[in-house]
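Example 3.2
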Amino acid sequence: MVNGISILGSTGSIGRQTVAAAKHLGVPVKAISVQSNIELAERQARELNTELVAVYDEDAAKALRRRLCDTNIRVAGGEAGLIEAAVIPSADCVVTAVSGAVGLKPTLAAIDTGRRIALANKETLVCAGTIVMARAAEKGAEIVPVDSEHSAIFQCLTGRERTELYRILLTGSGGPFRGKPVSELRDITPAQAVKHPNWSMGAKISVDSATMMNKGLEFIEAMYLFACTPDEIQVIIHPESIIHSMVELVDGTVIAQLGVPDMGLPIQLALTWPERGPSMSERLDFAALGKLTFEAPDLAKVPCLGLAMDCARRGGTATAILNAANEVAVALFLQEKIGFTQIYDCVSKALDSMEICSDPNLEEILDADRRARNFVREHFD
């Protein structure tokens, strides 16, 4: 088990559940980071007695300094503060629970220290998977995935040679609109899109699950995490969200990881691995489940998934453009500036309009990210 952790994105859904898991396990939280929610950040910092709070918004950081002036807790601001939280010496593990490409630089900084990365920020690998995984191998940094699907695959593959793997079976619930006619999707509201049938998540990832872009991002993430080609990954719709993913071995054996749909399980595992301990989550009741069902995704109905899978095959900056355009498009949808089906239009047009660099360095990836965001804002906002 790790001896101390830093939580990047401590006030989000994964961040709050990580705080709960750390308290349950008795793991000290040395640093936290937030975007701007200083009310909750102050409560967390005082309760956990952290050494550092990083606040991405500089004005909010100044306000939090005043609120914590009666303590010894330091407050850092901006991207530099986020990186400082990621590399704080007293933590041997950083939980990257921030949403979006903002997690890339802090994750790379933490990798450079050789500590464990409990990876919940899939955009880091979506944008720069080749660079991140190569850096982790060079620095001896252990990456333990926190996404339930990738945690499942990680567990299924542990102790096995890469040559034993035939393919990864990446499961997804299908989102809240599985079964709804395509003709009705144009009228979906943000309030409807954020109501996931099985998981309690933040607004952005809930919308991504509704469009199934999230499964596309997970497809790309799995490709880098487990050194697979796109042809070695198959997406399977599994509405009950009990099987979190499976691996098929070369002899036809399929190994699955099952559990209740509770992010507390993969979060705790990332902190205790390779050990395990009693969790706060419920136990599976197989008799109550009755049955588990599966179906193939309808890519005509969820074109964002197909678009992401195509970007995985194209490689280079295609995945960074996909991710950045989607982040802005989802924000515009949540602000009710575009419709639900226009999310796909935003991302597709950004990809069609921008040149793809086949073997980018980090600066070229970040430049593609900026240009994709600007394209969507200029053409759809």
